[in-house]
Structure formats: structure tokens, C-alpha cells
Amino acid sequence: MFPFYTTTLRRSNFACACKFFNRNLGSSSCSSYTDTDIVAPPRDAKVVICGGGVMGASVAYHLGKLGWGKDTVLIEQNRIGGGTTWHSSGLIGIFKPSLTQIKITKSSADLYKELSSKGLSTGWKQCGSLNIARTTDRMIVFRRMKAQAAFWKINCELLTPEQCKQKCPLISIDDIVGGLWIPEDGVGDPYEICMTIVNEAKAMGAKVVENCTVRKINQTNGKVTSVQTDLGDINCEYFVNCTGFWARGVGQLSEPNVKVPLHAVEHHYLHTKPIPGLDPMLPVVRDQDGYIYFRENNGRLLAGGFEPVAKPAYEDGRIPASSRERQLPEDWDHFHVLLEQLLHRVPSLRNAILDRLCNGPEAFSPDCKWIVGEAPEIRNYLVAAGMKTVGIAAAGGSGQSYGRADS
Length: 407
Fold this sequence. Notes:
- It holds the Pfam family DAO.
- This protein folds into 2 domains: 47-87 and 191-261 and 368-406, FAD/NAD(P)-binding domain (3-Layer(bba) Sandwich); 126-185 and 263-364, D-Amino Acid Oxidase, subunit A, domain 2 (D-Amino Acid Oxidase, Chain A, domain 2), CATH 3.30.9.
- Helix content is 28%, strand content 24%.
- It has helices at residues 14-17, 54-65, 99-117, 136-152, 161-167, 190-203, 247-251, 323-326, 332-345, 391-406, and strands at residues 47-50, 72-75, 91-92, 129-133, 157-159, 178-182, 186-187, 207-209, 214-220, 223-229, 232-235, 238-241, 263-272, 284-287, 292-297, 300-305, 354-364, 371-374, 381-385.
- The longest helix is centred in the N-terminal third of the chain and has 19 residues, at 99-117.
């Protein structure tokens, strides 16, 4: 258990709780750094990637690995990593509902391990994940997952409540019936991963153009032919829409429109102040019956979740281009559902000194599935969006599969 602190956050007064948080969301992990000069894009390329987050960066990186680096252009309307990447929680979970998704997440983890082994910054840490069951029904789900894992060659283990406590001493186990341990899961630093992959792509010849806005995607006979930007036009053979919650709007920049059904919703998570003695290899803990997760992050606890009823963001349809304008206000009344569950699962969190509550938009499709693949409306127009909050887990493998598709 981590030590108790003098400043206490009580459930009875969510409106006053914000006084314990630093309202300045800026930090070293959120600051922009890039050596990309503001230059006009080239006139010709094979592939134009729109969106300078970790997904677009991964596509550019893997195209470079296939020898297409000098024929690839990555366009970002603002700064690299300035969309949803900078506020991602960095969870990298291997287990997903389908074998295809599992192959993608495994490839992502393998990529981040490889980059880390070369001394490059990714923040990768294989700390494992502990998934908690409060009900027998949830344990039945975990048993099914373990059976699937054996077929899919994922190492996992069913745990008793006492074994769960051994994996994570912070948790209360009074109301749990067991758990599922996945040792291959881990975490990473989303911004470091993005910048490392971008710089590696540039080293392989990819052109990265920041502060450049796509105006139109042109097609002839149903196939991509060029992209119009505010800095000049680019003749190309492929266009990849990796623009996160802008993907729907970018889809409307072509004729016919490419339909990308997604919408941004608010996603809250909190940071504590540094906690002396907190184990840096604390596993990611997911309590799906309580809608919550938490992890260790640079000596702090990062804790959030997915409330039963999401709160839409940007309901007027306008998504600000500036990262500062996109910062959403704290909403303790909405977050209280998750906070109550966090305090229940980690009782000593009541006495932790809290730093800030982050509220960042994340893009969800109507059925919460990823939107990936070639658009049916236009040939050679590919989409990678709607990753919810698992863009980091999906990016490395998705970029690899898209690189193969383009080649």
C-alpha cells in the first residue's frame, strides 16, 4: 500500500475537488518537440498520409521499412502528436476480441520493444495487466478468454482473489471472485512513441509537413489521384486518412464522400502527485465491472475509466485545430461515477494528493469497432480511425498491415 497523505479527496464534494488539481495541463510529456521545418510539400508522392498522430506515424514508418520512404508524405494540420496522442493513457493490451486485432496489438508491442532495445524513447514497460472479476459471469468470460488465449498463443493465468492481491497490493479484494493475469501486456509513453516513429520514418526518407491542412482529395475513375492542401497540391496514388476524430470531416473532402462514422466523446482520467515507494512495475489494473482502470506513470497513479453513459464532445460539429482550444473542462459531476469506483477499489486513493484531472476527446464508432481498411467509395483511399482509447496498442501493427496493403 502506498503511504497516506494529509490532503484528502472526499466523495461528498466533487465540485470542490478540483482545488486539489493543477489546472495547467501542460507537462513535459505533452510539450511539442520536432525538428521538422515548415516547408511546402513535394509535388509528387506515392502515398499521402493525413494525420500526424501515432497512427499516421506508424504507417509512414512501415512504408519506409518497405522502401517507400522517399515516396511518402505525412501531413499534419498542427504539430506532430498534437491530436489524441498527447493525452492517451498509454495502455498496451494484447488481448482483443478477434485474432486479427490480436495480431495487430502483438505487432505493436513487438515494435515498441524493438525500438526500446535500440535505445530509442518509447516508455515501453512490460508490467502485465490484472483484470478483476466481481461476478461469476465475469469469471466465465475470463475462462473463455483463457481458452481462446491457448489457441491464440497468449500467455495468461486465472487468479484467486488472494493472488490478485499479490499482483497488486493496492486493491481491495472484498467483493471480487477472481481475476485474469496477462503478463505480456504493458504500457508506453504515447508521445515518445509517436515522435520516435516519426523521426525513424524521416530517417528513411519520408517527408513530414506540419501546419498543413488538406483541402480536397481528388479522384479519377474512382481512384485517388491527388491531394490539395493549403501549401500546394500533391499528385499521389494512395491517400491514408489517419486523422482521429477529424476522420469523418476529412472523409467529406472528396467526391464522392468517404463515410467514416465516428464521434468524439470526453474521456477523463486523473493523475496523483508522486507517491514514494510506488512500484514502477505495478501492473495495469482493469476492473470492467466498475468501469475503471489504473496504472503507474512516472511515480504517480494514472486512473480513469469508461462510464456507462459517455458524454459527447464538440456537439456543434466544430473540432478546434488548436490543441489548447481542444482542451475540455473538468467535469467532476460526470467523473464521479468513475471516482467512486476508484476509491472503492483502491481505498488509500482517498488520502493521495491529486495533481490534475485530464479530460481529452477520444473518437468512437457507433459499435465501438475500429474503422480500418480501404474505403468502398474510392480505390486507394484507406482509413485508420475510431481506435477509441487504444490507438497506441493498435498503431504499430496497423501501420505494418497498411504498409503491406499499399505495397
